[in-house]
Design goal:
α2 (about 35-50) crosses α6 and α5 (about 100-115) packs antiparallel against α6. The protein is built from 6 helices and 5 strands, in the order ββαβαααααββ. The strands form 2 sheets. A 3-stranded antiparallel β-sheet has the order 2-1-3. The chain has a two-stranded antiparallel ribbon with strand order 4-5. It is α+β, with helices and mostly antiparallel strands and about 170 residues long. Helices cover about 45% and strands about 15% of the residues. It is globular and about 55 Å long.
Length: about 170
């Protein structure tokens, strides 16, 4: 998952981490266990935080602005100061501090439920479930105190890639 280093940042999913990091100094997070969890995470972030979604800035505001999912930098003057708290929240979440993010989702779910907007409440509940799956699949705990060496390899054509993990 990439948080772009543009004037008006975006959260995108990418597989080209090396070139993205070198060219524009974007913030890169991951790797994630599979593509589905990565795309779900990007979708959740984009629904909760009003960063721009358009690759190129259009001449007029888009559908995301009318749904309050974008600050519409294409037609509004959005300052860096307005982006800083949003970027901070997203960065903390993607670095693993998800309590604030989960509390935000729970609050939105409760508010939607209180306003009798049950479809929105269900959507927030599904987002919470997706985040739990993401967190669970990335945890591996071995509490037996045994030192391990884990070997992995891949062969393609005349090339071999070997990984060794010391635990």
């Amino acid at each position: 998952i990439c948080l772009t280093n543009e004037t008006h940042p975006r959260v995108i999913m990418s597989r080209e981490i090396g070139s993205l990091k070198r060219k524009n100094k974007h913030k890169i997070f991951g790797p994630y266990p599979n593509v589905k969890t990565s795309s779900d995470t990007v979708e959740i972030i984009n629904k909760l935080y009003p960063l721009r979604k358009c690759k190129n800035l259009p001449k007029k505001y888009c559908l995301y602005y009318t749904m309050n999912e974008c600050l519409a930098p294409c037609v509004n003057k959005v300052t860096k100061a307005e982006y800083e708290p949003i970027i901070g929240n997203i960065t903390r979440f993607l670095n693993g501090n998800d309590t604030e993010f989960i509390n935000l989702l729970k609050n939105k779910m409760t508010t939607a439920s209180d306003l009798l907007e049950f479809e929105k409440a269900i959507e927030y509940r599904e987002m919470l479930n997706s985040l739990e799956v993401l967190a669970d699949k990335q945890k591996m705990t071995l509490n037996d105190g045994v030192t391990r060496d884990i070997f992995g390899y891949a062969v393609k054509d005349d090339l071999i890639n070997i990984q060794i993990f010391h635990m």
